[in-house]
Structures are given as C-alpha cells and as structure tokens.
Design goal:
Layout: H1 16-37, H2 43-50, H3 54-82, H4 84-104, H5 108-122, H6 126-136, H7 142-171, H8 173-180, H9 182-194, H10 220-233, H11 235-266, H12 271-298, H13 303-322, H14 331-341, H15 344-358, H16 364-393, H17 397-401, H18 403-439
Helix pairs in contact: 1-4, 1-5, 1-6, 1-7, 1-9, 3-4, 3-5, 3-16, 4-5, 4-6, 4-8, 4-9, 6-7, 6-16, 7-8, 7-12, 7-15, 11-12, 11-13, 11-15, 11-16, 11-18, 12-14, 12-15, 13-14, 13-15, 13-18, 15-16
Amino acid sequence: MSATPPSLPGDPPGGRRAAAVWGIGVAVYFVAVIFRTSLGVAGLDAADRFGVNASALSAFSILQLLVYAGMQIPVGLMVDRLGTKKVLTIGVVLFTVGQLGFALSPSYGTALAARALLGCGDAMTFISVLRLGSRWFPARRGPLIGQVAALFGMAGNLVSTLVIARMLHGMGWTATFAGSAVAGVLVLVLLLLFLSDHPEGHEPSPAFGRETPLPATHAGPAFVRRQIAESWREPGTRLGMWVHFTTQFPGMVFLLLWGMPFLVEAQGLSREGAGGLLTLVVLSNMLVGLVYGQVIARHHAARVPLALGTVGATATLWATTIAYPGGPAPMWLLITLCAVLGACGPASMIGFDFARPANPPERQGTASGIVNMGGFIASMTTLLAVGLLLDATGGDYRIAFSSVFVLEALGVAQILRLRGRTARRERERLVASRVEAVHVPV
C-alpha cells in the first residue's frame, strides 16, 4: 500500500484559486499561533509582572489549553454544520480580543480570563483550516495539505520567538501585545472579503450545507450525540487521537511555556541563547513537516512507524538531557534535543491521516476535533505537572520533566493496541470501494 491514492469522483480540482482561498485560512491560523505562543517567550516577564510562582504561571497556558481542548468537539460540530467562514470569523474576533485583553490586563485574574478567551478563538482555527483544505483540494493531497498548514502555524511560532521576544524587551508588555493584536484585525478583513467555504460546483450535501436549513433529523442533541458516537466508533479516529496525544505534547510544552525557563534557569543559557534554541525547534518542525507530508502521501504504511519513531527519539533525547551527569548538558546535546523536539508537531499531524479516511465528509470536522483534543489534553496535563513538581521540589527540572515519560508510555500502549484494528478496517474499506467501482454502470 505504498502508491499515492487516486483521485476520487467529485474531488475538488485544487489549483491557484484553491491555494489563494486556503491561504487566507492558513493566515488566520498563522496569527492564532503567534498569539497562542507569545506567552512562551514572555513567561519570565509574566511571572514578574503579576508576581506569581511556577504553578500560577503554568495556569496561563493550562487554562488556555483547557479551553482549547474542551472546544474541539463543539468546534468540529460547528464546522460540519455552519461552514468554515462563519466559524473562522468567530474565532478571529475572540482571539484578537483575548490578545488585546492580555496586553491591558491590570491583574493576574483578568490576564487569565484574556488567555481563556484567546484559547477559545484559537480552538476554532485549525479544524476549520483542515476542513477548508478538504473542500478545495483533492483527497490525495490531504496529508501534504495538513502538514503545510501546520508548517505555517510553526512559522507563527517563529514570529513569537524572533519578533515578539525582541518587541517585548524593546517596547514593553502593553505595546507588544496590543500591537500584535492588529494582525488579528488584518486577517479578519481578508477573511470577510475573500474566503469561500468551497469552490463553485462542489457544494456540500444539502443536509450539511450551510446554505440550506438543517432538517430536524440533522439538528438537536440526538444528532450531536450520533455524530460524536459514530466518529468515535471508528478505530481510525481513536488511533488518530492517541497518535496526536503521544507525539505533540513534548514539543508543545517546551515551546509554549517551560523551554525558556529550563534553558535559562537549569542550563545556564542567556535569554538570547535560549531563544536561539527555541527558534531551532520551530525551524526543525517546518523542515520535518515537509518531509513527513511527502512520505505519508506516498506511503501510508509509514504512518505508525513515523509516529512511534518520533516518540522514541524524543524520549531518548529528553532522558539524556535531564539526566546528564555533572550539571548542565553540553550545547551539542541541547541542539540535538531541540532538533528532535521539532519533529513532534509533524508527527502529531499523522493522527489526522488516520481519522480522515475513516470518516465520511459530513463527519470530518467532528473527527478532527476528537483527534485534536489528544495532544492538547496531554500538553495541559504536562504543563500542570511540571509547574506543581517545580514548586514541590524547589525548581528541580530533572524531576519535573520526568512527567513526560508517563504520558508517552500511556500513549504508546494505546497506539499499539489500536493499530491492528485500524489497519483491518482500512483494508475492508478499500476492498469495498474497489468492489463498488467495478459494479458502477458506465
């Protein structure tokens, strides 16, 4: 099963128009990631500004991710029923207001509320962009389109590590965060003027199209429960969630909050040196994402080996770094760790490549929401564990960062449990589609 999947009847044509429209959605996601990760380079400043300890500092990211993860299934249902443009518009408004509120917050409590609002808006972006790609590009391009979207998201992270960090130390807290909120207004204008849910002639089914009112059978709590249950029933959806859970969170935790304090406080680097290593994580993510997208598009059998290989490499480098004898780890080891952490994001995208073929178009948003919950639940759990352990041990990163291995072990066990039944289900579906194609009248 190494061949590229063929084009399917009714597939969107792709092309320049598709790239332009999809690019607007990606621009929204790009800005959302800038806002999401801006705290990662401002963690030490936030601790000083609000006078909080490690546990309270981690609450910023935990609350943001809690809202994000909790919104994934509702957002998936919204995308399936309302369409991409409406959901993205709501998301942009929310995360822009959240970023501006964070800039102007006079207290820890109001800053927490602003990050929660930002997380709510951020939650509406990535699933919408995945859905937009599936509406505008052929199905065979799905893995590459997903990885490229994630690549642009990491470019937003790069802006945080290179631009936001410099603005923060040159312009101050309020001017930096308020100024960055302007980017949200810009993408909102582009979205309202130019984005379309689908190309002409490729309208969704009337039962799920946003142009036609939903019939009673496709509305209400019963429909929602059925949509979630049918998505979850597919082994590919569950495997996708556990792949996302296991692969994403080490890199996310490092970039979102604890990488900068770890490199500065535990490894003795300057802020500039730590910022350079965080930039390396982002650059590695972008490069690996292109490679993984191409490999998976051509060889679907490589999905599980790539995911498990990334987990194994991450665990090995993480353990070697925090357990390095005789004090801070050497620079070559920190560079290698950051390069490997860059593979976490692309590996997490493999989860969507299990859920996508397992669900029909009308459930793509819901299934993607279930998958996307995985990594953010793991990230939220680890952020909390690291903060609590740092406070309990007086700042011992070796003990605090060991919490990573617990979640990785849980995730690997679930991947191994589900991979066989997912493969059997995919083979059954492939055989059924070939039989159906043979019997289609010409």
